[in-house]
Amino acid sequence: MTPEELGRRVGLAFSNLSLLRRALTHRSYLNEHPEALEDNERLEFLGDAALDFASAAWLYNRYPEMDEGDLTRLRSALVRTEQLAAFARELGLGEALLLGRGEEVSGGRERPALLCDAFEALIGALFLDAGIESVMRFMEPRFRRAADEVLEKEALLDPRSVLQMWAQAEHGETPRYETVDASGPDHAREFTVEVQVGEIVRAQGRGRSKQEAAQAAAEEALAEIGLNQGWSAAQER
Q1: Which residue among 100, 124, 153 closes a domain?
Q2: Cα 135 from Cα 158, distance rounded (Å)
Q3: Domain boundary among 120, 153, 186
């Protein structure tokens, strides 16, 4: 598959096709084809930065109540080598790579690190050709699917964040938390917080702080929808 064929296949109409070709040019190809002007390493550098920004902006807008720590961890999950290599495989990027013979024979078209680098270079080329908004449009459905997979695995987030992701992914809503009771002396206060997702889920939790009570409420809500057991097992790992 030529770079031009790849562009048509994935719906990327590059104004400057030389950028797309450069994004798919591995340094091993350059060594054997001196007529090629540049490999994809500089575009990889640019694409890495563009993906960091695009993923951060997408997460910030999609999960408005998620705290900075969970946003950072989820962003790392979206742009890790294995995930970007998976995006590359979905596009058939390996088939279009321009590789040297040695790299080809050694299985370079399937190597995760090489696929990740090529995907970053593709994003760098898209950024130069059409701007960050085009990068955002191209990545949004991919980020959404990857985030949903994290939600299913529930491997890195606390109950409140998992409930947030579920509510927005499944129902397009943000959970609403309300403190419905506070009792006890100041030094031993106990709070009761209720969480509600539309008319679908309602649960309560108690804790010595509002944050602790909100987490307990979210965990109870996850139990109601059948996600709590998976989350607990993930946390134990």
Answers
A1: 153
A2: 30
A3: 153
Distance CA 95, CA 89 (A): 9
Q: Which stretch of DSSP H or E encloses residue 206?
A: strand 201-207
Q: Are 144 and 42 in contact (CB under 8 A)?
A: no
End-to-end CA distance of the chain: 42
Kindly list the distances between the CA atom of residue 146 and the CA atoms of 84, 142, 169, 221, in Å, as whole numbers in the listed order: 10, 6, 11, 23
Helix (H/G/I), strand (E/B), else coil: 46: helix
pTM of the model: 0.67
Amino acid making up residue 59: L
Catalytic sites, residue numbers: 48, 120
pLDDT tens, residue by residue, 108-146: 788 898 999 999 999 999 999 999 999 999 999 999 999
Tell how far CA 21 is from the center of its chain. Answer: 26
DSSP codes joined into one string, 196-221: EETTTEEEEEEESSHHHHHHHHHHHH
